[in-house]
Design a protein that fits this description.
Layout (H helix, E strand, L loop, with lengths): L1 H7 L3 H29 L1 H4 L12 H12 L6 E5 L6 H13 L7 E4 L7 H13 L10 E5 L7 H13 L4 E7 L7 H4 L2 E5 L5 H15 L5 H11 L3 H12 L6 H8 L3 H13 L3 H14 L4 H13 L7 H15 L4 H28 L1
Parallel strand pairs: 1-4, 1-5, 2-3, 3-4
Helix pairs in contact: 4-5, 6-7, 9-10, 10-11, 10-12, 11-12, 13-14, 13-15, 13-17, 14-17, 15-16, 16-17
The chain binds adenosine-5'-triphosphate and magnesium ion (MG).
The site of magnesium ion has 4 residues, from helix 5.
Length: 364
């Protein structure tokens, strides 16, 4: 009897245990789902967790390893270089190697998608950086400002003061595609590390090891083609490789199919549209690529130059000069929207003029 009553009305304690088990089960499912998610993206699954796993940046890694051994002497750091070459990865490795198990607790990571205007710099970053040193053998906190070249001049100026004031309690690691977009006083307070585009042989070999780990068949020629489409950007290469793997094997055919959807092919389409004289459509496509697709203006002009060299305008001095001018202005930090819009307008005009000349010749 008593047993039946207990079955119908379990004690509060039994219910607590049940709730605990249910919540534990839910947490386990969450952890499982999370691990499934990171399994999905090879760029995250294979992101190095130690400096020694970073490939093809030997000098930089060597210098960083020396700094990490003696953290108290470490200055603020600025990692500059093209996309997908290991800057953010290296910054996270430095944080891990200095703070060991505590690195997550004492690292503030902010990227371009976070609000990083002057108010955030003054409040959030300043507060985090000026707390007393954490103890537990952790020498200081680390503020990782990813893509810091996207920060406004005012925010950078405010940052400069905080970097000076909080040197006892924090180190800053800034990453940027172009160090020239970082104000001089910040550059002079940082040790600068230049990241290089990764080399062909190293990337092909690395991609082959990933294919092996994933149990995906590949050919060397196909991996070479992945490299040609991504030119030393390993994030892009891994994404392309993963996309091609969904077709079964990594062959030149499967790489060609997925790279048709790549940024390079899309820029080629923009250039072709502009050269046909359709400026408005070209501009719309360009804005979509940059603002929705997140392509950098530097990649855009590089891909545009490639596309131009393969077009009927490959020897048009005017078109080549327009590309060179735009590249130069972007390098100096001019507004990308304005520069690329003017660039497409020039191409459209060149295209229309050539079309006009052809039809004049036909009429005569
Ligand atoms: N040198 C490298 N060695 C090993 N893996 C790398 C390297 N560079 C990039 N990767 C791979 O590419 C991914 C993206 O790299 P990371 O985020 O470090 O690029 P980044 O240089 O910070 O690029 P961005 O300028 O776009 O922010 C990593 O998760 C990793 O899988
Ligand atoms: Mg990065």
């Amino acid at each position: 009897m008593i047993g039946d009553a207990q079955l119908l009305f379990p004690s509060i304690q039994t219910r607590r245990v049940q709730i605990l088990i249910r919540s534990l089960a839910r947490r386990l499912v969450q952890i499982f789902e999370m691990s499934k998610e990171s399994d999905l993206m090879w760029v995250e699954k294979y992101r190095p967790v130690e400096l020694s796993q970073i490939i093809n940046q030997e000098d930089t890694v060597k210098r960083l390893k020396a700094l990490v051994k003696n953290p108290l002497e470490m200055p603020h750091l600025l990692f500059a270089g093209p996309p997908g070459t290991g800057k953010t990865t290296a910054a996270l490795c430095v944080a891990r190697e200095i703070m060991k198990d505590y690195w997550r607790d004492y690292t503030l990571e902010l990227n371009a998608s976070n609000e990083r205007g002057i108010d955030t710099v003054r409040e959030r970053i300043k507060n985090f950086a000026s707390y007393a040193s954490p103890g537990n053998g952790v020498p200081f906190r680390i503020v990782l400002l990813d893509e810091s070249d996207a920060m406004t001049h005012d925010a950078q100026t405010a940052l400069r003061r905080i970097m000076e004031e909080s040197f006892r309690t924090a180190r800053f690691i800034l990453t940027a595609n172009y160090s020239s977009n970082i104000i001089e006083p910040i550059q002079s307070r940082c040790a600068i590390f230049k990241f290089q585009r990764l080399g062909r042989d190293v990337v092909v070999e690395y991609l082959a090891t990933i294919c092996k780990k994933e149990g995906v068949k590949c050919t060397k020629a196909a991996l070479g083609l992945v490299y040609d489409n991504t030119e030393g950007d390993l994030r892009h290469a891994l994404n392309l490789l993963q996309a091609a793997s969904t077709m079964g094997e990594i062959t030149e055919e499967s790489v060609k199919r997925v790279s048709g959807l790549s940024g390079k092919a899309k820029v080629a389409e923009v250039i072709e549209t502009a050269l046909r004289g359709d400026f408005s459509s070209a501009r719309l496509k360009m804005i979509e690529l940059l603002q929705v697709g997140g392509m950098s203006e530097h990649d855009f002009i590089k891909f545009a130059s490639d596309a131009l060299s393969k077009s009927d305008f490959s020897s048009s001095i005017e078109a080549l000069q327009a590309t060179a001018d735009t590249d130069y202005r972007l390098l100096l930090g001019a507004n990308p929207d304005i520069q690329l819009t003017a660039y497409l307008a020039r191409l459209a005009e060149i295209g229309r003029r050539q079309k006009g000349q052809l039809s004049d010749e036909r009429d005569n």
